[in-house]
Amino acid sequence: MGAEENLAAAKRGYAAFGAGDAATAMAEMVDDIEWVTPGNSAVSGTVRGKQALGEHWAKFGAKGYGVTPEYWFADGDRVVVLVRHSYPGEGDTDAADVLTFNADGKLVKFQSAGDTALLERLFGTK
Q1: Which domains does the chain possess?
Q2: Segment holding 56, helix H or strand E
Q3: Which of 6, 41, 65, 80 suits a disulfide with 119, CB 3.0-4.6 Å?
Q4: Average pLDDT for consecutive 10-residue bins of the chain (126 residues)?
Q5: What are the distances in angstroms from CA 113 to CA 2, 19, 95, 104, 108?
């Protein structure tokens, strides 16, 4: 798939996630998705597979997490999304998400770069 198709898939995924529809958000991911959260918090590290990812997302959901995509960039198999993360009582923070797609247009890797100190405050450290 090309950059435009990958960008469209990313937008569908963010929209579904924002609507609380995990199944649709995961529809265009490979089964062994690699999800990387930066830092030394209890939710930092690499999660593999849709089952583990659903459990990972639940931890964020329990904290009232929200994400708003603001800017989209696509080139080949990568889509970069500049986002606002929000947690009740903590305000908003900026982050950059890098999504990598395979030749079939399925998401194979997601990596975020954001406020790791905030994650440590909210979730504790490892």
Answers
A1: 3-116 (3.10.450.50)
A2: helix 50-61
A3: 41
A4: 93 94 94 96 96 94 92 96 92 95 96 94 90
A5: 24, 23, 6, 25, 17
